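User: Can you help me understand a structure? I only have the sequence.
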Amino acid sequence: MTSPSQADLIAGNDTTDGESDPPKKRKPTSSDDLVGRSPGQLMWTRFKRDRTGVIAGCVVIFFFLIAALAPVIAKLYGKNPYTLYSQEDYTLLDEYGYPTGNAGGISGDFWFGIEPDMGRDIFTQLLYGMRTSLYTALVVAVLAALTGVIIGVTAGYMGGKVDYWLSRFTDFVMAFPSQLFLIAMTPVITAIFVDPQKETPVHIRFFAIVGILWFLGWMGMARLVRSQTLSLREREYVDAARVSGASSARILRKELLPNLQSTILIQASYMLPSAILTIAFASFVGVGFQEPTPDWGRMFATAGRIYEDNPMYMLFPGVAMVIFILAFNLFGDSVRDAIDPKAGR
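Assistant: Let's start by predicting it. Here is the structure, written out as C-alpha cells:
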C-alpha cells in the first residue's frame, strides 16, 4: 500500500486503496431547475418571487370578488343601496339633511355611515358602485385591447397601403379630445335611442359609455403592437414560415401573436385602471351613470358637494379607489418584470 502523495492530497484525490471514489452527483443549480420550462412557467416562477406583485394581485382579485358578490354581501348585511332609510327612521338625519350620528352616521347598523339628504346606506352604495365601475371598465378594456391588437397586427404585418391607411385612421381618432368627446357624445347617443324627456334605461347608458370609451381607447395598443409587428415580421423564423408555404393567418397565429403576448398583456394591464378613472370622471361630471344606479364617480360627485359639512362621506370611496388603482399599477409592474426580467423599474 502506498501513501498518497502531497499532490494527490492537494488535489483531493484519495489513492490509498488504489481506487478513486465515484464522482459525486452535482447538485442542480437554479439555472438547471429552469431547463425545460415553458415561458409561462418561467414567468409564473419569477412573479411568485415578487412579494409586492403577489400582494397587489391578491388585492385586485379581492376587489373583483367583492364587486361580484355585492348582492350576496348586501343580503347578509341586511341593507341595500336603494332604500331611503331616513324615511323609515327620521332620527338618522338632522333638519339640514346630514347624519345625526358621529363620523357621518357610522354605527353598528350602518358600517360606513348614512348618505346625506337621501339617507341611503354608504356601505352597500360602495359595493354596488365598485361593481358598476369595475365590470364596465373590464368590458371597455377587453374590447379596446382586442381592437388595438387586430388593427396593430394587420397594419404591421401587411405594410404598404394597408399600414398607411390604418395608421392614418389611428392618428385621426387620437386627435379627438377624449374627455370632451365623452362629455359631448354620451347625451347625443342616449338621445338617439331614448326620448330626452324620458328616463334613460341603465343598459342604454351602459352601452353608450362602453361604445364611446371603446372608440377612444384602442389607439395606444394599436400603435404599440404595430411597431412590434414591424420588427418581428423581418425575423428569420417568419421568413422560414413563408418559405415553407405557411399562410398569413398561420404566421400571425403561430409566429407573431405568441411573441406579442407579453407586449399585449403589459399594455392591457394599464388600460383597466385608466378606464375606471374615465368612467368615474364621466359620472362625476354628470354624463355617466345616473340616479339611482350606484357608481364610484357619482359618489365622488356627491362627496365634492358636501365635503365641507360631511368629510367622512368621501373617505371610504376615496380610499377604496386609491387602494385599487395603486394595487393594479403595482400588479402591472410585477407582471412586466416577470415577463421581461431585464426591464428595470
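Now, to help you interpret it: The radius of gyration is 29 Å. The first helix runs from residue 6 to 11. Let me know which part you'd like to focus on.
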